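User: Please predict structures.

Assistant: First:
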Amino acid sequence: MRTSENSADLVAAEDVLLFANAAITATGQREFRSGALDQQLSLDFLHTYVRVNYRRLYAASLALDINDHNAARIALGLLATAGEASAEERRTEGRLIAARLARLPPQRVYRLFGEVRRAGINNRRTRAIMRDWLAARPDLGHDAVKYRSGVKTAARHVHLRCPQGAEPLAEVGAFLFRPGKLPRYEHPLLDAWRRAHYEQGAVAELPFTVAEGFAARHGMKREVFLKRAAPRMTRLERLRTHAVTQRPDVDLAAMPLTRLALYVLALPFEQRAARRTELTGALRTAARRAAGRHAGSWGRVHAVLDDSFSSSGSGQKRRRPLAVALACHHLLEVLAAPGAYRGLWTSGRGDALLVRPWGPTPLGMRVLDALEPGPGGAAPDRLVIVSDGWDNAPAGLAGEVLRVWRARLDPGRRTAVVHVNPVYDADGFDVRRLAAGVPTAGIRDAEDLPALVEIARFAEGRTGAAELHAYLDRRVALFLGENDTEKETENETEKGTMS
């Protein structure tokens, strides 16, 4: 660390890293060791603290791989406090907010617009951002059916002009604000919604989440309804109903890696074992897609993966920590050089497909095993630890092992060690760390692992605040320059039709 750096810059860098970890992992929901209220209060404090003290960096975090919950909170906070920013800051913030909204699932954006209206935020910049987002929607008629209250709230708040006549926007206006006035609609979804009130055959033409309500009203059997609605389901909706429909056209390998891991862990052990070839193949294919250009570039990789009882998560985030570990296991296998990966589960299990949350967390013992030289007597190039950090069998052993390893056995840092943690610690305002000298990053989706390893190096103490700020500037420039959204989200937009 350069001694010439101002101590205030160092504190700012630490605060930004702390906030980034929280914004990646925390969603305000209950975790295994903390309740939802604790999570929400902790997040409230962090958002206010970073926005007030480091507004430019707070806005720049929209360009990082933070989760949708915190992205929406940052956008709301920036819009609500526009008077605290300079004209130049407002311009940059507006571009960042617009770019982030384009990447959020539409239901999340409409929820944000509802919060904007309830908060009374109605300045010119806010209205322009909302109007531009609505104008960019591929089919506002589809949104009006699927997210009716959200579209209605947004249209009222920005005073969206809905002319009279046969224009598409006029039909949307009539559908939202003058229901029942038109005998029929030219837009097929709007008219299907009208007919679905009395015609059972029109139900299958609607988006799945809307059709479910009409199906219940008509008394349709669940199995019959699902088979009729399948052609219009999104990829995620097909996955959720696969156990009932058993359709052969559900392409598991096309699912995002962490989402697929959650699906696998929700299956009974008997199904996992019976479908071993299919499930393992799908996980490996999804991992290769997530690794992209990084595949095979990490050399010898050893991993310690937490499948202790705390990896069961909570009622709101069921098995999420274990799913992240399972997804990281397959991703790291692809990132490592061919045949140079070794994954160690804390339970001692050797079958990744059949892991379950069980037992204590003997991280220290598994770290000792992972640091053992591999074939040829070579130490690993990278040690990756995926855990919530509650090392308790015995407590604190992992941190001590890593400290001694770094100080006595590997002072030259031949082995890069990184800890990724999928659980936010509300009491500590950060993810729980194993040791002071071990770089730690929060993680929500395993797909973000390569980028998070880059962020984690700033927490190791060998780079300064200037490097962190330069990294954030690069991410912002890249974020604002991209027009495509390669990262698949839980976006239920595309009218439900699947090829």
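Second:
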Amino acid sequence: MTDLSQIVKAYDVRGVVPDQWDETLAELFGAAFVQVTGADAIVTGHDMRPSSPGLARAFARGAAARGADVTEIGLCSTDQLYYASGALNLPGAMFTASHNPAQYNGIKMCRAGAAPVGQDTGLAEIRTLVEDWSDNGAPEPVAATGAVTQRDVLDDYAAHLRDLVDLTGIRPLKVVVDAGNGMGGHTVPTVFEGLPLELDALYFELDGSFPNHEANPLDPKNITDLQARVRETGADLGLAFDGDADRCFVVDENGDPVSPSAITALVAARELAKHPGGTIIHNCITSWSVPEVVKENGGNAVRTRVGHSFIKEEMARTGAIFGGEHSAHYYFRDFWNADTGMLAALHVLAALGGQQGPLSQLVAQYDRYAASGEINSTVDDQTGRLAAIRTAYENREGVTLDELDGLTVTAADWWFNVRPSNTEPLIRLNVEARDAATVDRVRDEALSVIRG
């Protein structure tokens, strides 16, 4: 019996090609996607990985065989696919493995208007259909198969983003951008065209073998070239995009990384200036500074679980104007509640170019605490380790515990969160405190319990 548990994750499909999945399976996923969504038309896009065009074409064949018309937008970033899903009001499928190594590929799927498809919103049903058809044969094509056509939406995507953030009046800025040989090399030149920006492009050649470094800016070793170039050239800031360019990381004029929580707070303040009293979503691992800034700017902060499907659902439920995560995913009501690192980058550029000080000075007001970053520990028993943490802290005076996502332990001057990985035998720890010494103390104590 076919078992897709290794490639169907909580929010997407992702695995090694062709060992774990291939074009035959992609075709079945296309058929199942149409059946589950009930769509009579869909849109697809793909990144620069060598296997992406073939997988996308196979998915389109499967969808068309079930009667759906397919609009192929070809090479694109994930947020460009979300744009197409929103602007065309069509369900969408993006072929990418984001920041994963070259041998991987995957599918990120959404309903019309970029609404998420996750385990509880259709992905489990799609998996069941594909497994059944793999074992028993695909269904016969419908009488009237769909048409497959091509459409270029890059210019429209760029124009939409520039309409949302006006940079025409900013002071000229020198910007280093590291695309990591990923889709930022495709989108950045068009989005930045005509703006008062001097672009210094690093690794803009589309190459799914990632010859220079992994397209994962969350790992510090992958932004060292960006940091060095910013320092060498005296640039105002640096931007790094991941492989599918839906996440953006920022370094200041000194080459120092800017916390995604600080970017969340900065963008939240700008969005609240446009939409007074609005709601801002943040996950349970973002800094204390985020809800503080939201409150100071007259907004309503809502804390939620980690993960794009939770953020998007909460944004839809509350009508939130913006949401941010510690992983540099940024979500905008004006972008169909979808995540777009490019729009967050434009906000940073507009904020920096709208005043005369350096970026380090600008973001200092949003970066108020010391933090450990995410620390992973391999464990044999995730449930047992979380229980051990609870036992160690639940009776301490002045300490509160909550289980919104994993376990969060909060005191007057610090907090930490521990969460089990959904895909690996890991416990993830994040610590924040009012000073670095407290971070170190709390981190070491928590790790001693986690690691037994």
